[in-house]
């Protein structure tokens, strides 16, 4: 590790000889395998960009020249080369290194958002700003072939193709998102990958007559007005440096097409046909096998969807390049012609689902809660306006944990709560997940949404009985507090009720199940208590609890409501339980907030 330890800033790279660069690449791979297997993270993607990142930092002068990493999951090597090796022991842990670029960590980092397909737009804007300042700073956007399937990237390419600003687009083409990249673009890139090597393309660009018979370097990009250099061997540092140096002087936007291999240098990743160990938990580094495997909410959804698929031939499934992470793979195996992977294209996924519904199908769009944010208009105007029966299954809802602020799925219940005709359920356990999924696909006149966390499953929580669609989980004699728990927080709510009961309080606990729109029966239940407390793992403002307070106000039920939820903040990366506790959404926090509210109820109204 001597060479890696000697690199504290990119300038240190430029004094290394070629042989040392190869040795450094080996040290970086060893370091990544050893540390990321111990912490979890994006091992496969980062093993694929070792040489590419070394070459980038040798040719471009970060932070004067700006490097923008699309999605940012492949920025570990960049972090190692910019002085953050010592932080990797705490990767993606509370107070530790972020798994994505972080402006507070380094001046070399720019974009923290882990949502794909944004880098080219940032680059376009940065280049415009530098052009206005008369600066000759270069802007380099590193984008994967998967991220290039996102529509936003093509909006940016359309603009870049018409300008003469010095933007370098480094296309990190490993042929995969998680799975092999899909769509017509994948075919085009595959054709380009099969072309001769980089030197041939340079000769072509220089117009050497013997090359004139070859096709133009890239109809894909050239046709848009962008330069194209490549394909380049993405693991040959000298070739990469030559291409980047040519790109740096190109004078207008140019794509450098780099061919890389995801997971290179770690056999379990290189041989993993699923997703080249794209995003891993803690692994046994020697074998590449997970240290622990547990049954999660995703498994419960996956199994029930397969069962539904056998009963309902109209049910089809859709993913935005995340077939396995969202649990759709078993459905795809059993019903290969009824599952669609549209690439990293959530907006297209939603509107295409509206089309499928108009065609008589019932699409189930499986997507991480945070990634649906970018398709809000499509849910609102393409699905709900037309009252189309599309079911959205939002995995990673609530606090996800290690992936940090742009991954927490905390906005859905507030954002989707304003969509007319949309119904949203928050199951509390596997049993209610199965039940509510079936209820959702039976809805024929509008969108339905289910949301559940990135978590292992606990035991099912039985209901005493159901009233107005709401499950009563606890119902003491002469209750004084109504505790409304949303989804997975039912366990914490019941534990809080136990703590309050030990202090003599009598707490009714209910699970609304379908939380948007607000079940009217909650007004009747509230009227029987002297305090209502709502708890949800979604943003508090405009969330479920706020809507319940509005219901009570609209129906004249004058019972105080305490709304507990996530703050309107970007929450850091940390353990999920730790973050929920910090936000007062564990049993102790719920009990304390309830006692505090009780203490503020004027005694005149005390029963
Ligand atoms: C909008 C959005 N959808 C989905 C994801 C999940 N995701 C993270 S990385 C990734 C694959 C990225 O593939 P690529 O851009 O080719 O990068 P590679 O991992 O191959 O280096 C996906 C789908 C995301 N980050 N953002
Ligand atoms: C970068 C990205 O968006 C995904 O790779 C994400 O990190 C996966 O999250 P999970 O590990 O929770 O599936
Ligand atoms: Mg890729």
UniProtKB/TrEMBL annotation:
Record-listed thiamine diphosphate binding positions: 73, 114-116, 146-147, 174, 266, 346
Pathway field: Metabolic intermediate biosynthesis; 1-deoxy-D-xylulose 5-phosphate biosynthesis; 1-deoxy-D-xylulose 5-phosphate from D-glyceraldehyde 3-phosphate and pyruvate: step 1/1
Residues where Mg(2+) binds: 145, 174
One of the record's GO cellular component terms: cytosol
UniProt keyword terms in alphabetical order: Isoprene biosynthesis, Magnesium, Metal-binding, Thiamine biosynthesis, Thiamine pyrophosphate, Transferase
Cofactor notes: Binds 1 thiamine pyrophosphate per subunit. Binds 1 Mg(2+) ion per subunit.
MF term (GO), any: 1-deoxy-D-xylulose-5-phosphate synthase activity
Signal peptide annotation: none
Domain Transketolase-like pyrimidine-binding intervals: 295-460
InterPro entries, per the entry: Dxylulose-5-P_synthase, THDP-binding, Transketo_C/PFOR_II, Transketolase-like_Pyr-bd, Transketolase_BS, Transketolase_C
Entry cofactors: thiamine diphosphate; Mg(2+)
SMART domains per UniProt: Transket_pyr (SM00861)
Superkingdom, taxonomy of origin: Bacteria
Catalytic activity: D-glyceraldehyde 3-phosphate + pyruvate + H(+) = 1-deoxy-D-xylulose 5-phosphate + CO2
EC number, as in UniProt: 2.2.1.7
Subunit-level organization: Homodimer.
NCBIfam families: dxs, PRK05444.2-2
Job description of the protein: Catalyzes the acyloin condensation reaction between C atoms 2 and 3 of pyruvate and glyceraldehyde 3-phosphate to yield 1-deoxy-D-xylulose-5-phosphate (DXP).
Protein family per UniProt: Belongs to the transketolase family. DXPS subfamily.
Record protein name field: 1-deoxy-D-xylulose-5-phosphate synthase
High-level lineage: Bacteria, Bacillati, Actinomycetota, Actinomycetes, Micromonosporales
């Amino acid at each position: 590790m001597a060479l890696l330890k000697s690199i504290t800033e990119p300038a240190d790279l430029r004094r290394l000889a070629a042989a040392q660069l190869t040795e450094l690449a080996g040290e970086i791979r060893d370091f990544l395998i050893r540390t990321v297997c111990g912490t979890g993270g994006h091992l496969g993607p980062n093993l694929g960009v070792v040489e590419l990142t070394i070459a980038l930092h040798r040719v471009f002068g970060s932070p004067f020249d700006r490097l923008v990493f699309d999605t940012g999951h492949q920025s570990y090597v960049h972090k190692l080369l910019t002085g953050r090796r010592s932080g990797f022991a705490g990767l993606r842990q509370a107070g530790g290194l972020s798994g994505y670029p972080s402006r507070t960590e380094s001046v070399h980092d720019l974009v923290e958002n882990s949502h794909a397909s944004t880098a080219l737009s940032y680059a376009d804007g940065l280049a415009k700003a530098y052009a206005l300042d008369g600066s000759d700073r270069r802007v380099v956007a590193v984008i994967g072939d998967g991220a290039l399937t996102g529509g936003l990237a093509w909006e940016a390419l359309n603009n870049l193709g018409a300008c003469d600003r010095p933007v370098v687009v480094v296309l990190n083409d490993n042929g995969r998102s998680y799975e092999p990249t899909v769509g017509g673009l994948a075919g085009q890139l595959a054709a380009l990958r099969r072309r001769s090597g980089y030197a041939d393309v340079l000769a072509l660009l220089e117009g050497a007559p013997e090359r004139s018979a070859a096709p133009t370097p890239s109809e894909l990009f050239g046709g848009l007005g962008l330069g194209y250099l490549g394909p380049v061997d993405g693991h040959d540092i000298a070739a990469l440096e030559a291409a980047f140096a040519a790109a740096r002087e190109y004078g207008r936007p140019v794509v450098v097409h780099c061919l890389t291999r995801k997971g290179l240098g770690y056999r379990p990743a290189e041989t993993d046909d699923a997703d080249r160990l794209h995003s891993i938990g803690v692994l046994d580094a020697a074998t590449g096998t997970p240290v622990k495997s547990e049954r999660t909410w995703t498994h419960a959804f996956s199994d029930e969807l397969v069962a539904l698929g056998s009963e309902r031939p109209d049910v089809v499934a859709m993913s935005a390049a995340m077939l396995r992470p969202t649990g759709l793979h078993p459905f795809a195996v059993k019903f290969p012609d009824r599952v669609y992977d549209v690439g990293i294209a959530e907006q297209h996924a939603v509107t295409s689902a509206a089309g499928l519904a108009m065609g008589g199908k019932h699409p189930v769009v499986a997507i991480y809660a945070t990634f649906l944010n970018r398709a809000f208009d499509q849910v609102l105007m393409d699905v709900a306006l037309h009252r189309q029966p599309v079911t959205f299954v939002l995995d990673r809802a609530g606090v996800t944990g290690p992936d940090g602020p742009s991954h927490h799925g905390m906005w859905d219940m507030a954002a989707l709560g304003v969509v007319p005709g949309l119904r949203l359920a928050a199951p509390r356990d596997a049993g209610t997940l199965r039940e509510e999924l079936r209820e959702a696909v039976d809805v024929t006149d509008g969108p339905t949404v289910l949301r559940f966390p990135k978590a292992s499953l606990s035991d099912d929580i039985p209901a005493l009985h159901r009233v107005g669609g709401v499950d009563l989980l606890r119902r003491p004699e002469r209750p004084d507090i109504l505790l409304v728990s949303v989804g997975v927080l039912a366990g914490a709510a019941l534990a809080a009720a136990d703590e309050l009961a030990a202090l003599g309080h009598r707490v009714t606990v209910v699970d609304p199940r379908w939380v948007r729109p607000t079940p009217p029966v909650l007004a009747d239940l509230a009227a029987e208590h002297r305090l209502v407390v709502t708890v949800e793992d979604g943003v508090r403002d405009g969330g479920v609890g706020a809507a319940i307070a509005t219901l009570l106000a609209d129906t004249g039920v004058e019972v105080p409501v305490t709304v507990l939820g996530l703050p309107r903040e970007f929450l850091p990366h940390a353990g999920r339980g730790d973050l929920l506790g910090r936000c007062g959404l564990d049993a102790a926090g719920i009990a304390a907030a309830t006692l505090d509210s009780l203490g503020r109820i004027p005694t005149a109204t005390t029963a």
